[in-house]
Structure formats: C-alpha cells, structure tokens
Amino acid sequence: MATRxxxxxxxxxxxxxxxxxxxxxGGGQTSGDSGASGGGATGEFEGRGPITYVQGKDNSGLxxxxxxxxxxxxPDEKVEMIELSAEADQQRxxxxxxxxxxxxxxxxxxxxxxxxxxxxxxxxxxPLNEADFEKxxxxxxxxxxxxxxxxxxxxxxxxxxxxLYYRKDLLEQAGVTxxxxxxxDMKKGCEAVRGLxxxxxxxxxxxxxxxxxxxxxxxxxxxxxxxxxxxxPEGEVVVDSxxxxxxxxxxxxxxxxxxxxxxxxxxKEEEGRAAFESDRLVYYRNWPYQYSLTKxxxxxxxxxxxxxxxxxxxxxxxxxxxGGHNVAISSFCKNKATAYDFIxxxxxxxxxxxxxxxxxxxxxxxxxxxxxxxIDQYPYLPALKGSIxxxxxxxxxxxxxxxxxxxxxxxxxxxxGQATSEQAVKDLSAKLTELTSAQQ
Length: 440
Ligand code: GLC
Description:
By secondary structure, this protein is of the alpha/beta class. It is globular, with a radius of gyration of 21 Å. The chain has helices spanning about 5-20, 65-75, 90-100, 115-120, 140-145, 170-175, 185-195, 215-225, 240-255, 270-275, 290-300, 335-345, 350-360, 365-370, 370-375, 380-390, 400-415, 420-435; strands at about 50-55, 80-85, 110, 145-150, 150, 155-160, 165, 205, 280-285, 305, 325-330. Alpha-D-glucopyranose binds near residues 160 and 217.
C-alpha cells in the first residue's frame, strides 16, 4: 500500500492534472469579457481609496478589530469587512454572484482554497506577482493552493488541517490518560467515559456531517485515511475502490453503532463545537480556530491530538483534507492598488503571528510552527504542522462546487442509514466521471 505521504503528493498531482485539463469556460464568461484590468501579474495596479474585505463568518469576532490597525495607518484607504455565511458553499455563492454581476462591492475576497481554480479560470480575480510574497518561507503545499496553471491568484493567509479535540477531564476521570491514536482507542475511551455517572449517553465522536462542504472534508479524510482516493493522480475517478469503500463504511458503521451520534448529521463546525463544550461529545474533529474559543469555555479540560488512524495498524494517524483560505483581488474592485497593499500587509509574518495568537488560525509560515515560545502556548502546533504537511488537497477543479455537491448527495443518505456505502461509491463514481469529463 502507498504511504500516507505518497498519497498526499499523488492527490496533489491529481489536482494539478485536473487543473490543466480544465477550460476557462463554464460560467458564461471568458477571460476577454470579464472586465479584468490586467497588469496584476507584474504587481502593478491602479486605484487608491476605500476597499472592502469579504470573508465567511468571523467566529472569533476579532478580525474586524484587527483591521482597525490598517485603518489607523491608512485613513484614506480604509478597509471595511463584509462577513458572509459560516458555510463554504454559501460563501462561494455570494462571491460568484458578485462576480457574475461584475459588482465592485467585494474587493479583497477571502477564497476557500477549493474555489481558487474556479475564480482564476473565470478571471474573476486578478493574477498577482509572486515575487511580492515570501514564497520560500511558506509551507509548500499551502503556497500551492493559491496557484492556477502555475500563476499566483490568491495568497494564503490561513491554512487549515484537521485536529482532534478530546475531553481530557472526562477521560481522566474514567482512567484514560493517553490521547487516542486510533479509532479503536477512541471507542475504548468513550466506553470508559460512558461508565461515569451522568454520562451514559454521551456521544463518542463527531465531525462536520451536515450536508455542506464540511461533509466533503470529513468523507475525503475517511477515504484517504483508509488508503483510498476520490480522484487518482492521473485525474481519473477512483472512488469505486475497496479502500474508498472501507473509508465510507467506517463512517456508515460509526453512525449505525452510535459511535457518532445521529445529531452529528446537523453539525457544521460551530454546532459540533457547542456539543463538545456542553458535554455531548468526548471527541471532536475540527480546525484549529476552535482552540482559542474552547480554551475560553473549558480552560484545561480538553486536549488536542493528531487525527487518529482508522484502524489499529495506523498508529501514525489519519489523514486530513487540506483546508485554508487565501486572499485575492476581485477583478471588479475599483481600488486595486490599495487592495494589493492590503494583501501584502494581511499576509505578512507580523499579521500571521497575530492571527495565530488572537484567533488560533493555522499560520502559512513554516517558522511559526517551530517557534518554542509559541509551541509552549499552543502545544498543538507540531501536530497541526504534521496534519497540514501530509494533508490531501481536495480536487482543485474549476467546477469544484458541482464535484463537492455530488459527493455530499451520494454520502449523506448513507450516514442517514438510507443507502449503502457500496451503492454510494458506484453512483458517485458515475456522477464524478460525468462531471470531470465535462471539464475536458
Ligand atoms: C474550513 C477550511 C475550508 C473548508 C471548510 C469546510 O473553513 O479552511 O477549507 O472548506 O472549513 O467547512
């Protein structure tokens, strides 16, 4: 069997193959009629004045206050933050609509890395000059997420890797002191906690299982952790394989056995966090942003570990999907010169350090993961770096929204107990083959 690292690299290669196979059409616009002003690849933009910065829901509430520092130094080029939905799919819808109407309402946009290819292919965002950024200091897999056909379009400012949050307090009361390394360990730990007074029906494990992008992430992780892939390095749909089936069956059975509680079918990131913090879950898979928020609620009652391996022979852990967000300049923004300066400021090492220490977002700079003072304060940093470095990118296809929706449509009924994993991988294979060949 291929190594986990090998699979991650292969998946990255798959994304590249698909990316090159994609045409720039499909959204009713081609590069010529998009209104893009050009010149960005050299870093020369025009237009100064107020700008907007558009991102998904700010769970921390700390992003807007941080932007005030920029505003103090740039009184004539202030940035106003526009917050969109908490869901990646909805964020994309708003941004696509803004681009299709060629509106200048959104200027700097925070693109989920899965949407970079689509926005670049349609020329809804400006090409940027990579010489203006510190590429060599940035984790290579993270830098890669901002490129489309080898051209930089969106600079990463927050990476993301899945990590496991666990209720250290309850587990310790139940006599379990070691963090879990495998799903079996989690099963044992949860059984022990269920033996405690008042916790007999606590949920064991949760991830984001509601029908939205988070589900695609969790399914992709289960499939990769089982040694499978959804799409091969050659761009072929390979989800109809024994390994992918095993990954999906692990989730199917976990629901059947009530290891994952039924209410997890409604969890997006924040719903699951609420369950974890209110004693309804022993283990929860989420992104690092949760750390600062849970620290406020639970203090030292929780711990963080790498994602566990699906089976006992995987003590090295499970594989994360590569999450993250990148900033890009909308082609329809008026004050692009200001926007470009803002992006340089926003992705600087100083701001990255603040995004870590204030919001526990995952840094893009390698050095911040190795800084002992930061590790003392954020002990999960080495696990997070490992999670990101071995993470598998989701397919970076231009029609990613359709691909992800197909994954969600196929697997959600399985988790609800209304379809089998066997049928789902077959149906998904057919649907994805149709969708990926439509792009060639
Ligand atoms: C996080 C990740 C993003 C992912 C989303 C799914 O925001 O950074 O890449 O798509 O979660 O819910």
